[in-house]
Amino acid sequence: MDKMLFFLLQKGGNKKSVRITTAELGKALGMSQQNSSRRLKLLSDESLIERKGGIRITPAGTKKIREHYNMLKRALEESRIRFSGKIVDGFGKGKYYISLSGYRKGIRDRLGFEPYAGTLNIKLSKNDLRKRSEILRDEPIVINGFRTKQRTFGDLFAYHCKVNGYSAAIVFPLRSNHPQDIIEIVADVHLRKALNRGKGSGVVVEV
What we know:
Elements: H1 3-10, H2 22-29, H3 33-45, E1 49-51, E2 55-57, H4 59-77, E3 82-88, H5 94-99, H6 101-111, E4 120-124, H7 131-137, E5 141-143, E6 146-147, E7 152-153, E8 156-163, E9 166-173, E10 182-186, H8 191-195, E11 202-206
Helix pairs in contact: 2-3
């Protein structure tokens, strides 16, 4: 995490404006006033802070901090959410949605890979159904929705995962026709072929 953003968080900058000069900020962080001013401008340009009557962390900045927090928490606690399920057929809409340029760009930018046009649908066992709620408790990676001339497409909440060792991501569309026990997964490969698994085959997912 950016140490300046962390310092502002310690001062309560996510709840109130912190009144501090760039010279004072630089001294506290062991840098020059010029460098302190430059770092603040970078944070402002990234919309992570706003400077009005002081310095305040924006919602985007708070979200960035939460992402780092969740990553550190998992690394320190070595806690992973692990569940099993069976491959099921979807409604055939995954290919259409993941083929849309708006979602493809969002997945490239936010998840770091070019998605295969389709989703792997996993049906959770009854014992693992609660794992869905556990996943959603963490701060998601948001794939922003978009609008075309015909309609509006909603946001996707995404979480990096591994499926039988393959890197992938679980996606939760804000608008979905799937029941609660179905999890949709995207990856940069055709997962059924890569895993050599067909309908009804069991897989293990680790988030």
